[in-house]
Specification:
homodimer; alpha+beta; 25% strand
């Protein structure tokens, strides 16, 4: 017997209302009413992000349900991280072509594992029939004045990126080619496996976002490609940016799989990294070093904000011409 | 030249950030950063709803863009209304098969007209390419303890519905049959026109929701059919419900177009009404009358909450058997 919409929500998603560590007292009314009622603690502002993943656009047709659930929440957590916010609650709007209980179970479980890690509670949403897509709306909390904006950078501020970029783009390419896990893993190619995992299960930089509060002059999450997102940060700050391509932290897996040239391009222009790109005034670098240690997160200085508008990518002292300013879902460049 | 994702958001949707009457001071950071930062006023709780409209499921293929924009926001405002909340902010996640500027302009303008009426500000979201669907996440405010829940009804409480139901279902049927406006209007059939408008441009009962605070014992918005939603309210309250079919407020347009029998069925089981269904203790009926006057909204007593679980629809003293418990997007009943 087919489960109805309401049973379905209950069965798979009600358990997500109570992640491991979260105090539930702030959820006045959760799943099951017309809307959620939430108590925002005194002294906090609300941070709200809404992002949708569409099959065939944000993930290949046939992606593992667990990855889809993970990524739908991760991209929103990444938005909260880029603001320096503490995740609190999320809502889920799920559009499915049909009820497939195994799919739903995997989707919910991918979402729950990530939600537990970041202590964010599901409080509502809806499900409907249609082409597969997943909208998540994440709500976070921050003290007034502490949000990391794109617009605060100053000329001369140093530009950093957390972790590494390019892996997810290379991983997506492997996924698209149908280099299924069994093949590459059996091939004994751990590099390919690592890259695919970076695409399928990105780790939003929530702890780093917190650590950068009151320190980073500007911050953005890297979803559309490092160069494009660095330019957005610079433009929002009324500045331009110079990126030193030689400094980009390419992983060994990326170098091994894509080679140096293509790997560099993927690190600059590939999407789906969900790292943080941020600027810091030079005088505060010692503080940054301390905070990175505390957050247990690596970051690399890759450039500098400059007063001349636009993006300049420099390699071996020469200007690189990037074929595109990054990934744009509409113009279709990649 | 195709507009990119970011220009597109800016051009059509940035104006929606500042509705006519709204004080913008509570929007600390709006459209254009990774997430919105919002100041929740002291003494208020947050009310959050997320609903998606999918082409071919929630509206017929080829629906007017203005109606799609209106309805995407309206269904969420209706959720806030059902909680008794004051609308404050919304986010929009738009999935479009292609950029069509006329479509976008109409969509934005349908959304803006309704947003202005209810003083709710667009603060963020995203756009992507894919099968047409619109997710709106609405945020409202309410004082602690004032939210109208589904769960508060008591046995013996009288059940009311605002306005009238069934018109939208009849209007949708006319839309689906392709009874285009030009035909029915030229026919001099204002009834058909009125029904179609009820489907295309539902009016969320925000003022009524406010007026019912501290008075209604339970409340739900009617989106899946009056009988099904009344049963949801009763079940959440640990009760059952008896609906007197003869009391249902069918409009003259519905009677004229659908006839008495089918009209009654549509009023009971049709979806998309976005009226409020609520319960009130009998001793407080004088207060209800006053508040309905203040809110300038009609409501009709259609039944009573009873301790025996389940739904009983009675007509001329006999029990009616409803073919379905209402609209469910998955089981596909209508």
């Amino acid at each position: 017997m087919a489960m109805g919409e309401f049973d379905l929500i209950d069965h798979y998603f009600r358990p997500l209302q109570r992640p491991a560590g979260r105090n539930a007292a702030d959820i006045v009314t959760g799943i099951g009413d017309d809307a959620a009622v939430l108590a925002v603690p005194a002294g906090f502002q609300l941070v709200a992000a809404l992002d949708t993943l569409v099959e065939g656009v944000h993930f290949p047709v046939g992606s593992p349900a667990r990855s889809i659930g993970h990524r739908a929440l991760a991209v929103n957590l990444s938005d909260l991280a880029a603001m320096g916010a503490d995740p609190a609650w999320y809502l889920l709007s799920l559009t499915l072509p049909r009820i497939d209980e195994e799919f739903l179970g995997e989707l919910a479980s991918g979402m729950q594992a990530l939600a537990d890690r970041h202590d964010i509670a599901l409080v509502g949403g809806d499900t409907t029939r249609g082409p597969l897509s997943v909208s998540v709306q994440a709500l976070g909390l921050i003290r007034p004045g502490e949000a990391l904006l794109r617009a605060g950078g100053g000329a001369g501020d140093l530009l950093f990126v957390s972790g590494s970029t390019g892996d997810a783009a290379a991983g997506l390419q492997l996924e698209m080619r149908g280099s299924a896990g069994s093949l590459t893993d059996a091939d004994g190619n751990p590099a390919a496996h690592a890259l695919r995992q970076r695409f399928l299960y990105p780790a939003p930089r929530v702890a780093l976002g917190r650590a950068l509060r009151g320190l980073a002059s500007a911050c953005i999450d890297v979803s559309d490609g490092l160069a494009a997102d660095a330019l957005k940060l610079a433009t929002a700050s009324g500045l331009g940016v110079r990126v030193e391509a030689d400094r980009l932290p390419l992983t060994a897996a990326l170098r091994a799989t894509s080679g140096e040239e293509k790997g560099l391009f993927q690190a600059l222009s590939g999407g789906d990294d969900y790292e943080l790109c941020f600027s810091v005034t030079a005088t505060r670098l010692p503080e940054l070093a301390e905070r990175l240690l505390t957050a247990d997160c690596a970051a690399t200085c890759i450039g500098v904000l400059e007063s001349e508008p636009g993006l300049r990518v420099v390699r071996d002292g020469r200007m690189l011409n990037l074929p595109s300013a990054g990934f744009d879902h509409f113009t279709g460049s990649d």
